[in-house]
Amino acid sequence: MRTPAVLLALLVLLTAPPAPAPAQAPDPVADSIVRNLTRGLRIPNQGDAVPAPVTPLDPRSPVQAGTTAPPDVPAVSLMITFATGSARLTPQAEAVVASLARALAAPELARSRFRIEGHTDTVGDPAMNQALSERRAATVRDALVQRYGIAAARLEAVGFGESTPLVRSGDERNEPRNRRVQVVNLGE
Fold first, then answer.
1. Which of 80, 83, 160, 84 lies closest to 115 in space, CA to CA?
2. Residues 6+ apart with CB under 8 A from 120
3. Model pTM greater than 0.85?
4. Which residues are CB-neighbours of 180 under 8 A, at least 6 positions away?
5. 3 state DSSP class of 188
6. What pLDDT, in 10s, does the model give residues 101-143?
């Protein structure tokens, strides 16, 4: 037979309100992505246009300082890394894609559509780089849709190969800043 103290403790546990869910940790990468993808846009219920993008948090940030999008188009370049010659995301890239998903789900961006652009450096055959950039853009889009529930209709994947470098370089130049995924806000 159980003692009254044990029964009382069980009753307290069973009738206590659930503990509040832990607060989600801030994601400075997602915040930076949101700022870049809303730059210059008027956001309903938030007043004036969003200011110019904020530069990367530190040199190791996956958010790069520039894009190849037209100056009036909100965009962000991300260091989403892949194994050489592969469209498989690295563990570091998985974390960046998770931050991108949080950004795309933010209220400021929840109604917008986006172009996910794959870019490469000039190492290798241009036709191979074009195909690789297309596969990489599709990989990021598919991860956003399948793992994070971003609506597929909001995302368009396009590969640019080595045709639109962020940093000018010669042929066969290993330039990490050109191996990137750029996200462009296409509006509603």
1. 160
2. 129, 132, 133, 161, 162, 178, 179
3. no
4. 64, 77, 78, 79, 80, 119, 166
5. coil
6. 999 999 999 999 999 999 998 999 999 999 999 999 999 999 9
